[in-house]
């Protein structure tokens, strides 16, 4: 996993609540056996008419050239539904490094963290302030300081992240590296449990 | 100190605690399927690792399989390759596979319990959010992502923070025509699609205790639809009776030893929860959803909420958008509205009891000409039982189509899809936009309410057909 420290970028606003993983990546695209290339199908059915890439839906934000950036900002309960990690892969492959919302579904949050996509939980008030910004507005996210700033106004909010997960992201460590390092303790546990 | 059911199982499985971080949780059983495992196997190979405990992993093919002509090669090339990859991976890593053609094949959350692999007191994971189903046996069971599947392969452990605990007590007797699916749809409608996020839920109370194992599985299955990490029910005589003699359940002296252990698996009388909800069973009516998340549900004879009566702006916008997708009008009842499809299946409601319930209602009746009805048993064993009990004859006489085991039209991945713009009353678990196929409109309901609509061709209060 790549390490992540700070993100300074414009953002893509998606002021919808309960964005489920079936919208992020519909099930028919889960037939692949590798982690690559899911970005082109990110929000597929919100993005295109009749599943046709030549017919972009003009009112969907990913098709609005005024908006771009490495940060997706979405309404509460983002990533609910299916456990498909393909949702995190699709966001990462499309180019998002962080998702900001007032509330994340648990499994999605873990999947994002395991793929170096930072879920930033902010208050509903702060979220609405971000949405109020224009297309040129930028955000700064500092993982070390656990802070997110609306650059235009300087308004800042602190966000929570598990200390262990923070270390992993800052250094690009995977959980699996850690789990492999305690193999002996796991085997000892198995022996004593039996 | 008084402990909850969750605490008792959790504590027995913590290998170690990381300071300021999660715990290393030992996993007893790991179910896998074709969709969320290939990248995990690839990751393992890239690191030059083996599966640490292959005998604790069980595989099946369910999401991406056709439900017709399963003896023929899968027509869709990508689906065929993915199922083939599972076969190869299981062979390479010595994992037991109940694949297509095997008498134990079926939906992963149906076969685990019916084979007795799922047992009280276990920690169980699967790369599928409906893994919460197994909690019905008094197990800690939850869905994980593919990176976590790889972690369990490599170490038989996961890094997990202990969730908050919620108990939902349902006391009293259920009304006529109300079954376990209605209970869970009622709970989700009450607390919303995110109402239990961050929690692990224990379902308790006399109404839960009176339910069969199949009915309990339906409830635990949909825990994730209110955001819960998982759901669980303390094991009791009903659990033990269900498990006795199953293929992989403990036998002989082992059974007696396990039984003693399982009998200790309940929340102590004075155990405390972070949150508790009390529900009167008599308040629950047959339920149906009208929106595009499982929290948007109403009693079948009620009206869709009038959007201007909703105070919260975000919620109002949500419902407005959902109604637009669903082609429904705010403030109007759903009763009498024509549906084109009825889907009875999925890990929520495809067990033998569900199908018996449907058969009992439709016996001697015939489906409405304007409705296509698909019954998809959850496993090969359920299919066999359907025939042994003669339910197939009832379904055929009613004009229902019986398919072979798989996830089918629950998720719009395999061949079984609902056409854009058409309505489907479905016994599955999600009514998200496009869940059953791009543009499909899903109304979630119980097997009874689905069967009633199959007969009448319109949204129906099943109590009118129950005499």
UniProtKB/TrEMBL annotation, chain A:
GO cellular component, as recorded: 3-isopropylmalate dehydratase complex
Record's keyword annotation contains Amino-acid biosynthesis: yes
Pathway it works in: Amino-acid biosynthesis; L-leucine biosynthesis; L-leucine from 3-methyl-2-oxobutanoate: step 2/4
EC number: 4.2.1.33
Assigned protein family: Belongs to the LeuD family. LeuD type 1 subfamily.
Quaternary assembly: Heterodimer of LeuC and LeuD.
Protein's job: Catalyzes the isomerization between 2-isopropylmalate and 3-isopropylmalate, via the formation of 2-isopropylmaleate.
Name of this chain's protein: 3-isopropylmalate dehydratase small subunit
Automatic annotation (TrEMBL), chain B:
Binding site for [4Fe-4S] cluster: 347, 407, 410
Example of a GO biological process term: L-leucine biosynthetic process
Pathway: Amino-acid biosynthesis; L-leucine biosynthesis; L-leucine from 3-methyl-2-oxobutanoate: step 2/4
Catalytic activity field: (2R,3S)-3-isopropylmalate = (2S)-2-isopropylmalate
UniProt entry keywords in alphabetical sequence: 4Fe-4S, Amino-acid biosynthesis, Branched-chain amino acid biosynthesis, Iron, Iron-sulfur, Leucine biosynthesis, Lyase, Metal-binding
Ranges where the Aconitase/3-isopropylmalate dehydratase large subunit alpha/beta/alpha domain occurs: 7-457
Pfam families: Aconitase
EC number, as in UniProt: 4.2.1.33
Note on how the cofactor is bound: Binds 1 [4Fe-4S] cluster per subunit.
CDD domains: IPMI
Cofactor(s) this protein requires: [4Fe-4S] cluster
InterPro entries documented for this protein: 3-IsopropMal_deHydase_lsu, Acnase/IPM_dHydase_lsu_aba_1/3, Acoase/IPM_deHydtase_lsu_aba, Aconitase_4Fe-4S_BS, Aconitase_4Fe-4S_dom, IPM_dehydratase_rel_enz, IPMI_cat
Function statement: Catalyzes the isomerization between 2-isopropylmalate and 3-isopropylmalate, via the formation of 2-isopropylmaleate.
Quaternary structure note: Heterodimer of LeuC and LeuD.
Family: Belongs to the aconitase/IPM isomerase family. LeuC type 1 subfamily.
Protein name: 3-isopropylmalate dehydratase large subunit
Species this protein is from: Sediminibacterium ginsengisoli
